[in-house]
């Protein structure tokens, strides 16, 4: 998938978000008996351990990883809500510690909690209230609120009470609220987790086309959703135990997991030729499942040597009279991508280099 933002990135510009050797630890909660026995023996658990990241201006960048990987802590550091123990984080050249007030003017975290909205007020009144806190007054406030309601597609529902909104409409209102100060960087933490599949797809399209495209925001997205990570983001980073384990395009990271795994659609899954592929070393680890339509069967197989291997497999099947309707690479799930990357980096190993862009 081609992303407009990826095309517009100027590699000669310095990164919009630059993180170097960032660390953060939290004290471990102790029982009162342990405190009495050893009052000064504090223990700490690392949340971030030497995180290095560079995000380009206008990029849609994804943060993946299991629970406790450090994604939320990283967002809090960038939002100037907590101070790192060591290392450096910059947003558009501004240090998040020394220049915290300036960073807050160009960055907006999108709080995914719908309860942060005032449900007994209309969408317009919600935005008017927060616009006043950002310093908007008079006609300027009314104009800005009207613009944002139009941007997020809530212009016709602006006078409707928020308590009557669907989850998707509330998420759009949260985005509108975050856009009030005209930020250049948005931090999104699982923005579609409360949405049904159809609403989530519409919301992702809105983020990609309107917020990332027309508004030109740089977006950092923390997600557990495979479609968001593998379809929406220009690049992703996998975090585990506070370390960056891999960085690259979604396609490059997925290729690490499913480089040799393919599905062959055929009406003759029991043909002897499939067994002969294994004997001749043209294929490995063959398995068969029935397709959803009941007419075709799917043979899932590992094919080494990339395109040349696929060509050899198809040619062999054709010579032996096995018709193939389609051959496609197996797309791994998000869990498989994360599991694969994490398994390659046991505790104590350094971060992996960025995967080549595909």
> Secondary-structure element sequence?
HEHEEHEEHEHHHEHEHEEHEHEEHEH
Count of β-strands: 14
Shape: globular
| CATH fold title of the largest domain | Rossmann fold
Calculate Rg over CA atoms. 25 Å
Low-confidence stretches: 1-10
Question: How many helical elements?
Answer: 13
- The percentage helix is 25-40%
The domain tally reads 2
Distance between the termini: 11 Å
Strand content: 15-25%
Q: What is the correct CATH architecture of the largest domain?
A: 3-Layer(aba) Sandwich
CATH class of the largest domain: Alpha Beta
- The average pLDDT is 83
Major sheet size, sense and barrel closure? 6 strands, mixed
- Assembly state of the chains shown: single chain
Could you name the CATH homologous superfamily of the largest domain?
P-loop containing nucleotide triphosphate hydrolases
Structural summary, described in words:
The protein has 13 helices and 14 strands. It is of the alpha/beta class. The chain folds into 2 domains: 4-248, Rossmann fold (3-Layer(aba) Sandwich); 259-329, Alpha-Beta Plaits. The strands form 3 sheets. Strands 6-7-8-3-9-10 form a 6-stranded mixed β-sheet, sandwiched between helices. A 4-stranded antiparallel β-sheet has the order 2-1-4-5, with helices on one face. Helix 5 (123-133) packs across helix 6 (138-151) and helix 10 (250-258) crosses helix 13 (334-343). The longest helix has 18 residues, at 197-214. It is globular and about 75 Å long. The relative contact order is 0.13.
């Amino acid at each position: 998938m081609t992303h407009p933002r990826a095309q517009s990135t100027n590699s000669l510009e310095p990164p919009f978000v630059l993180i170097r050797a960032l660390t953060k630890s939290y004290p471990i909660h102790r029982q009162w008996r342990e405190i009495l026995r050893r009052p000064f023996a504090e223990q700490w658990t690392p949340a971030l351990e030497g995180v290095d990241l560079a995000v380009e201006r206008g990029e849609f960048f994804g943060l993946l990883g299991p629970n406790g990987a450090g994604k939320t802590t990283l967002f809090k550091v960038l939002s100037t809500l907590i101070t790192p123990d060591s290392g450096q984080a910059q947003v558009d050249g501004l240090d998040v510690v020394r220049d915290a007030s300036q960073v807050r003017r160009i960055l907006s975290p999108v709080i995914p909690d719908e309860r942060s909205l005032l449900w007994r007020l209309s969408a317009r009144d919600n935005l008017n209230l927060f616009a006043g806190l950002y310093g908007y007054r008079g006609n300027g406030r009314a104009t800005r609120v009207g613009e944002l309601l139009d941007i997020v597609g809530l212009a016709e529902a602006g006078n409707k009470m928020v308590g009557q909104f669907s989850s998707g409409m509330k998420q759009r209102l949260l985005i509108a609220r975050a856009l009030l100060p005209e930020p250049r960087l948005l931090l999104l933490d699982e923005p579609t987790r409360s949405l049904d599949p159809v609403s989530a797809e519409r919301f992702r399209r809105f983020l990609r086309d309107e917020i990332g495209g027309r508004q030109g925001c740089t977006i950092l997205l923390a997600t557990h959703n495979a479609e968001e990570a593998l379809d929406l983001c220009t690049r992703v980073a996998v975090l585990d135990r506070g370390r960056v384990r891999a960085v690259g395009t979604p396609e490059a990271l997925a290729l690490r997991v499913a480089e040799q795994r393919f599905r062959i659609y055929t009406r003759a899954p029991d043909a002897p030729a499939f067994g002969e592929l294994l004997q001749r070393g043209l294929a490995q680890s063959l398995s068969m499942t029935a397709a959803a339509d009941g007419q075709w069967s799917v043979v899932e197989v590992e094919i080494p040597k990339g395109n040349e291997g696929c060509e050899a497999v198809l040619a062999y099947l054709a010579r032996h009279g096995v018709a193939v309707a389609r051959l496609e690479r197996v797309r791994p799930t998000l869990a498989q991508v994360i599991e694969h990357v994490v398994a390659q980096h046991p505790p104590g190993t350094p971060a992996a280099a960025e995967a080549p862009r595909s």
